[in-house]
What does this fold into?
Amino acid sequence: MVACVLGIDVSTTATKAILVDEGGGVVGIGIAEYGVEIPHPGWTEQDPALWWLAAQSAIGSALGSAGISADAVAAIGLTGQMHGAVLLDAAGAVLRPAILWNDQRTAAECDVMRERIGPERLIAITGNDAMTGFTAPKLLWVQRHEPDTWERVAQVLLPKDYLRFRLTGEYAMDKADGSGTQLFELSRRDWSPEVLAALEIDPSLMPPTFEGPEVTGRLSEEAAAACGLRAGTPVVAGGGDQAANAVGVGAVSPGVTALSLGTSGVVFSSTDRPIIEEHGRVHAFCHAVPARWHMMSVMLSAAGSLRWFRDALAPGEPFADLAASADEVAAARDGLFFLPYLSGERSPHPDPLARGAFVGLTTSHDRRHLTRAVLEGVAFGLRDGLDLMLSAGMARPSQIRASGGGLASPAWRQILADVLDTELVAPSTTEGAAFGAAILAAVGGGWFGSVAAGSEALVRTTPVATPGPQRSAYADAHAAFRELYPALAPTFHRTS
It folds into this structure.
C-alpha cells in the first residue's frame, strides 16, 4: 500500500485536497468550489459550513482519483486563506458569517488600534501597521457594531482552523496564521497580552498556537466517517496560505525567497529572526517552520493587471499571445510606464486610494507597447517591495522560487529576472499551499525530522530565467518608475 499525506487548502473560492506520496508525487487531487457573499459594498463574508462540506467533497475526490484507501493516509496538514474572523459560541456553533481577508469595512477600527496602542508600538509588537484585512480590526468592528454577537463569542478561529475543529473537535491555530491576525507578539511567537488588553479581547477567546508540523489533534470518528478517512489520523497545525506556499516551493531557510505571481503578487523571504520594516510597509510574520519568521511584500494587482488589460483592450485574446507580443518591442526604452495600482496598493505604498495609470503615451505606441508596459510595471512594483525588504535587513537572494499563473509567459519571466536581477527557478508542482501543507503533515507524521529535510526531499525546481543584458536598462527605467507614485498620489487622493 502506498503511504500518502493529505494537504487541504481552504481558499477563498474553493477547498482543495491533494494526496502526496513519499517521493513527492501528487497522486490525487480533489476540488470543491463555493461562493463569497457581499452584503454591502466592500464587505466579503462566507458561511463556514461551506468549508466543511467542500472539504468532505474534495477529500473524497482526492481519494477516488488516487485509488487508495483511508488507511494509506498517514497525516493531514491544513492551510488556507489568512486574516479571517470565525466566531463561535460556547457550544462551538458559528455566530455569524466569517469576515474574510479582503473585507474593507474596518478603516475606522484600524485608526482605533493606532490610537490605543500607538502606531510605532503596534508595528514593534506585531511587525505590521493596522490594516483592514487583518483579523484584529474585524474583532473590534464586531465589538462596536454587533455587541450582542460579541457578548456570545467564546472562540475566535481562522478559516482553516474551523475546518480543524470539525475534523478533530480541537481548537488550535498555527503560529504563522496566528501572527497574521495582528494579535501576536512577533518575537514571542504567541498572543500579545498588551495588544489583547488594549483591544479588550479576553485571551481565553484565542486558541492555543502550535508550530507548523506539530500535531494538534486526531481525526474524530464522526469526521472520519464524513470524509472517508481513518479515525485517529493525526492533523498537524499547518500554516496560512503564504507560509504554506513557501514550504511548498522550498523557501524555508533564511535567504531563500519566493515569488507568487497570481492575481496579486507576493515576494516572500524566510528569516532566522523577526525583521520589521519601521513603517510597516512590508509584512513581518512567523513562518510555518519552527524558529523561522518571514518578510512579505504584497502587490494587489499583479497578474490581475494583465487580466484587466486583456479584458478591457484585447477581449478574447489568449494571454500567451498577448504576452508574447511584448517581445516585439524594445525593453524599457521608449518612456512608457504603467502603474499597477488598479485596486489600491499594500507594498510599498499602503494606499487604498492609489490608482493605475499609463504615463508617457505617444502616437508611436500601439498595443504591443502597452502590453510590455503592463508586464514591466508589475515587475517594477515587485522590485519596490523587494527593495524595502532588503533595506529593512533581509539578505539579498541569489535565487527566487517563482510560482503562479503569470510565470507561464516566457516574456514575463525574462522581464522579472532582469528587473529583480536574480535567477528564477520554478517548482515541479503547481499545487502551492496545499503541497506545503502536505510537507508539514509529512514532518508531523514522522517521515522527516524537520521541515527543511522534508522540503529538500520533496521539492524539485527547474531554472526558468536568468538576468540578461537588459537589466542595466531596467535599472534606469525603475528609477524613473519610482518617481511616478509620489508625483501622482495627490491627484489620486483628490479624485478618488
